[in-house]
Design brief:
The complex is a heterodimer of chains A (59) and B (158). By secondary structure, chain A is mainly alpha-helical. Chain A is built from two helices and no strands. The radius of gyration of chain A is 14 Å and the shape is elongated. With 158 residues, chain B is mainly alpha-helical. The chains are: A mainly alpha (59), B mainly alpha (158).
Chain lengths: 59, 158
Amino acid sequence: MIRSHLLNMVVFSALVAVFFAFLTQQGTRDRLRVILILGGSMLVLSLVLAYVMYPFPLR
Amino acid sequence: MSEMLVEQTVPKARSGAASFVACTLAWLVPGLGHFYLGKKTRAAAFFLVVSAMFVLGIGSGGAASLIEERQPLTFLATFDNVAVGPFDLLGRYLTYGTIVYSLPGTEGDPRRAELLDRLRDRVRSVTYEYGNTFLLTAGLMNILLILDAFDIAAGRKD
Protein backbone atom coordinates (compact mmCIF):
# COMPACT_ATOMS: atom_id res chain seq x y z
CA MET A 1 0.00 0.00 0.00
CA ILE A 2 2.51 2.62 1.20
CA ARG A 3 5.98 1.46 0.19
CA SER A 4 7.98 4.40 1.53
CA HIS A 5 9.50 3.78 4.98
CA LEU A 6 9.36 7.47 5.83
CA LEU A 7 5.75 7.87 4.73
CA ASN A 8 4.73 4.80 6.73
CA MET A 9 6.40 6.32 9.77
CA VAL A 10 4.74 9.71 9.22
CA VAL A 11 1.28 8.14 8.82
CA PHE A 12 1.78 5.88 11.85
CA SER A 13 2.99 8.79 14.02
CA ALA A 14 0.10 10.99 12.91
CA LEU A 15 -2.53 8.33 13.67
CA VAL A 16 -1.05 7.53 17.10
CA ALA A 17 -0.78 11.25 17.93
CA VAL A 18 -4.41 11.92 16.93
CA PHE A 19 -5.56 8.89 18.92
CA PHE A 20 -3.84 9.97 22.14
CA ALA A 21 -4.87 13.59 21.65
CA PHE A 22 -8.53 12.59 21.58
CA LEU A 23 -8.06 10.05 24.38
CA THR A 24 -6.36 12.39 26.84
CA GLN A 25 -7.51 15.93 26.01
CA GLN A 26 -10.86 17.70 25.81
CA GLY A 27 -10.45 20.99 23.93
CA THR A 28 -9.41 21.52 20.31
CA ARG A 29 -6.44 23.66 21.30
CA ASP A 30 -5.12 21.07 23.77
CA ARG A 31 -5.61 18.28 21.26
CA LEU A 32 -3.70 20.17 18.58
CA ARG A 33 -0.87 20.77 21.05
CA VAL A 34 -0.65 17.04 21.87
CA ILE A 35 -0.78 16.11 18.17
CA LEU A 36 2.09 18.46 17.38
CA ILE A 37 4.22 17.51 20.38
CA LEU A 38 3.61 13.75 20.29
CA GLY A 39 3.62 13.35 16.51
CA GLY A 40 6.64 15.61 16.15
CA SER A 41 8.53 13.84 18.93
CA MET A 42 7.91 10.43 17.41
CA LEU A 43 9.16 11.57 14.03
CA VAL A 44 12.19 13.52 15.24
CA LEU A 45 13.31 10.89 17.77
CA SER A 46 12.94 8.11 15.17
CA LEU A 47 15.07 10.03 12.69
CA VAL A 48 17.67 10.81 15.37
CA LEU A 49 17.76 7.14 16.43
CA ALA A 50 18.07 6.04 12.80
CA TYR A 51 20.95 8.49 12.30
CA VAL A 52 22.72 7.26 15.44
CA MET A 53 22.32 3.63 14.35
CA TYR A 54 23.47 4.31 10.82
CA PRO A 55 27.20 3.48 11.42
CA PHE A 56 26.40 0.08 12.93
CA PRO A 57 26.53 -2.82 10.50
CA LEU A 58 23.49 -5.04 10.04
CA ARG A 59 25.49 -8.20 10.82
CA MET B 1 -7.51 41.41 43.03
CA SER B 2 -8.77 39.19 40.33
CA GLU B 3 -9.99 35.76 41.00
CA MET B 4 -10.26 33.10 38.39
CA LEU B 5 -13.09 30.68 38.75
CA VAL B 6 -12.50 27.30 37.24
CA GLU B 7 -15.61 25.38 36.49
CA GLN B 8 -15.20 21.70 37.10
CA THR B 9 -17.81 19.22 36.06
CA VAL B 10 -18.14 16.03 38.04
CA PRO B 11 -18.29 13.02 35.72
CA LYS B 12 -21.59 11.18 35.95
CA ALA B 13 -21.42 7.51 36.99
CA ARG B 14 -23.70 5.18 35.08
CA SER B 15 -25.08 1.78 36.03
CA GLY B 16 -23.06 -1.41 35.80
CA ALA B 17 -25.21 -2.53 32.87
CA ALA B 18 -24.37 0.67 31.01
CA SER B 19 -20.66 0.03 31.60
CA PHE B 20 -21.01 -3.47 30.22
CA VAL B 21 -22.93 -2.23 27.17
CA ALA B 22 -20.40 0.54 26.56
CA CYS B 23 -17.46 -1.89 26.72
CA THR B 24 -19.20 -4.42 24.47
CA LEU B 25 -20.08 -1.76 21.90
CA ALA B 26 -16.51 -0.41 22.09
CA TRP B 27 -15.23 -3.88 21.23
CA LEU B 28 -17.77 -4.42 18.43
CA VAL B 29 -17.03 -1.16 16.61
CA PRO B 30 -14.13 1.13 17.57
CA GLY B 31 -15.62 4.32 19.02
CA LEU B 32 -19.16 2.97 19.39
CA GLY B 33 -18.78 2.75 23.18
CA HIS B 34 -17.96 6.46 23.29
CA PHE B 35 -20.87 7.22 20.95
CA TYR B 36 -23.19 5.34 23.31
CA LEU B 37 -21.86 7.42 26.21
CA GLY B 38 -22.55 10.66 24.32
CA LYS B 39 -18.97 11.46 23.28
CA LYS B 40 -19.74 11.77 19.59
CA THR B 41 -16.72 13.75 18.40
CA ARG B 42 -14.34 11.39 20.16
CA ALA B 43 -16.28 8.41 18.82
CA ALA B 44 -15.90 9.62 15.22
CA ALA B 45 -12.18 10.32 15.69
CA PHE B 46 -11.54 6.92 17.27
CA PHE B 47 -13.49 5.10 14.58
CA LEU B 48 -11.54 6.85 11.81
CA VAL B 49 -8.14 6.33 13.44
CA VAL B 50 -8.59 2.65 14.35
CA SER B 51 -10.23 1.87 11.00
CA ALA B 52 -7.39 3.60 9.15
CA MET B 53 -4.86 1.59 11.18
CA PHE B 54 -6.65 -1.65 10.33
CA VAL B 55 -7.05 -0.86 6.61
CA LEU B 56 -3.40 0.21 6.33
CA GLY B 57 -2.38 -2.97 8.17
CA ILE B 58 -4.25 -5.31 5.86
CA GLY B 59 -3.39 -3.24 2.77
CA SER B 60 0.30 -3.28 3.64
CA GLY B 61 0.39 -7.07 3.79
CA GLY B 62 -0.02 -7.51 7.54
CA ALA B 63 -1.41 -10.83 8.73
CA ALA B 64 -3.73 -11.80 11.54
CA SER B 65 -1.81 -13.91 14.07
CA LEU B 66 -2.50 -17.58 14.66
CA ILE B 67 -2.06 -19.33 17.99
CA GLU B 68 0.79 -21.79 17.90
CA GLU B 69 1.35 -23.70 21.14
CA ARG B 70 5.12 -23.81 20.75
CA GLN B 71 5.26 -20.01 20.55
CA PRO B 72 3.53 -18.49 23.60
CA LEU B 73 3.76 -14.93 22.26
CA THR B 74 1.32 -15.87 19.50
CA PHE B 75 -1.40 -16.04 22.21
CA LEU B 76 -0.84 -12.37 22.99
CA ALA B 77 -0.69 -11.35 19.34
CA THR B 78 -3.91 -13.24 18.57
CA PHE B 79 -5.64 -11.72 21.61
CA ASP B 80 -4.54 -8.29 20.40
CA ASN B 81 -5.94 -8.98 16.92
CA VAL B 82 -9.25 -10.17 18.37
CA ALA B 83 -9.46 -6.98 20.48
CA VAL B 84 -10.23 -4.99 17.35
CA GLY B 85 -13.63 -6.67 17.20
CA PRO B 86 -15.38 -8.05 14.12
CA PHE B 87 -12.82 -6.26 11.93
CA ASP B 88 -10.58 -9.15 12.94
CA LEU B 89 -12.87 -11.62 11.15
CA LEU B 90 -12.32 -9.65 7.95
CA GLY B 91 -8.59 -9.59 8.58
CA ARG B 92 -8.47 -13.35 9.06
CA TYR B 93 -10.57 -13.99 5.98
CA LEU B 94 -8.33 -11.77 3.85
CA THR B 95 -5.18 -13.36 5.30
CA TYR B 96 -6.11 -17.04 5.28
CA GLY B 97 -9.24 -17.25 3.13
CA THR B 98 -11.18 -18.53 6.15
CA ILE B 99 -11.82 -17.68 9.79
CA VAL B 100 -9.12 -19.49 11.73
CA TYR B 101 -7.48 -18.76 15.09
CA SER B 102 -4.89 -21.48 15.61
CA LEU B 103 -2.33 -23.33 13.57
CA PRO B 104 -2.73 -27.13 13.57
CA GLY B 105 0.10 -28.59 15.63
CA THR B 106 1.16 -31.60 13.58
CA GLU B 107 3.80 -30.98 10.94
CA GLY B 108 2.28 -33.18 8.23
CA ASP B 109 -1.22 -31.70 8.49
CA PRO B 110 -2.23 -30.36 5.03
CA ARG B 111 -4.34 -27.67 6.70
CA ARG B 112 -1.23 -26.38 8.48
CA ALA B 113 0.73 -26.35 5.22
CA GLU B 114 -2.04 -24.44 3.47
CA LEU B 115 -2.25 -21.80 6.21
CA LEU B 116 1.54 -21.40 6.27
CA ASP B 117 1.58 -20.98 2.48
CA ARG B 118 -0.98 -18.20 2.72
CA LEU B 119 1.02 -16.59 5.52
CA ARG B 120 4.25 -16.79 3.49
CA ASP B 121 2.52 -15.01 0.61
CA ARG B 122 2.00 -12.04 2.91
CA VAL B 123 5.42 -12.24 4.54
CA ARG B 124 6.97 -11.82 1.08
CA SER B 125 5.44 -8.34 0.86
CA VAL B 126 8.08 -5.67 1.55
CA THR B 127 5.64 -3.84 3.80
CA TYR B 128 4.65 -6.92 5.83
CA GLU B 129 6.30 -5.65 9.02
CA TYR B 130 4.59 -2.29 8.68
CA GLY B 131 1.29 -4.03 8.06
CA ASN B 132 1.67 -6.15 11.19
CA THR B 133 2.61 -3.08 13.23
CA PHE B 134 -0.49 -1.24 12.03
CA LEU B 135 -2.71 -4.25 12.76
CA LEU B 136 -1.32 -4.84 16.25
CA THR B 137 -1.53 -1.13 17.07
CA ALA B 138 -5.18 -1.06 15.97
CA GLY B 139 -5.86 -3.86 18.48
CA LEU B 140 -3.97 -2.11 21.28
CA MET B 141 -5.84 1.12 20.56
CA ASN B 142 -9.18 -0.66 20.80
CA ILE B 143 -8.18 -2.21 24.14
CA LEU B 144 -7.47 1.32 25.42
CA LEU B 145 -10.82 2.48 24.01
CA ILE B 146 -12.69 -0.31 25.83
CA LEU B 147 -10.96 0.65 29.10
CA ASP B 148 -11.63 4.35 28.45
CA ALA B 149 -15.32 3.66 27.79
CA PHE B 150 -15.44 1.75 31.09
CA ASP B 151 -13.83 4.68 32.95
CA ILE B 152 -16.30 7.14 31.45
CA ALA B 153 -19.27 4.88 32.25
CA ALA B 154 -18.01 4.40 35.82
CA GLY B 155 -17.73 8.16 36.30
CA ARG B 156 -13.96 8.21 36.70
CA LYS B 157 -13.50 10.37 33.63
CA ASP B 158 -15.57 12.78 31.55
